[in-house]
Amino acid sequence: MAGHRKNMSSDSFFSFAGTLSIHYRTLGQGPLPILFLHGFASSSTTWQELAELFPGEEYTLFLLDLKGFGLSAKPKDGAYSIEDQAELVKAFILDKEFRSLVLVGHSLGGAVALRVCIDAGMDGGAFRVDKLVLIDSAAYPQRLPKFFRKLRSPLGPLFLRLMPARMLVQGVLERVFFDKSAITAERFERYTSYFRGKGIAYALRATVKAIEPEAYAQIEESYRCLRLPVLIIWGAEDRNVRLSLGQRLQRDLSGSRLRVLEKCGHNPHEERPEETYSEISSFLRDR
Predict the structure, then answer these.
(1) pTM of the model
(2) Alpha carbons 24 and 60: distance in angstroms, whole number
(3) Which runs of E-coded beta strand occur in 53-161?
(4) Does some domain include residue 86?
(5) Mean pLDDT to the nearest integer, 261-280
(6) Which of 131, 185, 193, 242 is most buried, with most CB under 10 Å away?
């Protein structure tokens, strides 16, 4: 399968709100821009295997590090809500002067993508999202995983300081991946390095504290108003965001289609990149 393996990728930064340096990677030189938004406790590197499968002559991929994650700025300003991240994404889209694009969001990034699409329909046409891909997306209030609850507690900072990064990553990855063989040494080291990053502890806690039921309630009210093609991809064995929520999302988003990957966990794009690419590619080619 032709892909980005023969194409160069580049790392760049753009300035958000005048002072914050936001990191992104660009791959390919094709006419169709696709913007990828990662999930919680992750970064743009989560898309590595999937991104390599897209033909560089057809697509230009933009892999964004959300505020507080990856190589992006991690200010201690408390502004880490879904709405805050959506404002960043909209600023990026306008900075790149996209008139139209495809959005891909995973987990928390899916919630941000939904917010961006809702806002795009209300902002007078500054840009248009042609298609939306949601992968195991956060979309509704739910009981938070144990790791999230620990971060939100008053002892959250102590938990992050005392828990060895390798032990923390092992627990997170074993919950996220159904196929444990996908937890390669390279992936394990990548996530371990991420959890050791400067400022990440604050960003993790600030994000979790901003994930309130009211935040999803505001977005949820607008789901049925969205009028664009939506592909929903879900791992059947997702323990973080259950399949039942993906099925609910498919019902609430008119014109959406749901593709379930069997024997797959919360990160289909990492656990099953070829199947994930196949679903996205078919969706993008549909007119």
Answers:
(1) 0.94
(2) 13
(3) 59-64, 100-106, 128-135
(4) yes
(5) 99
(6) 131
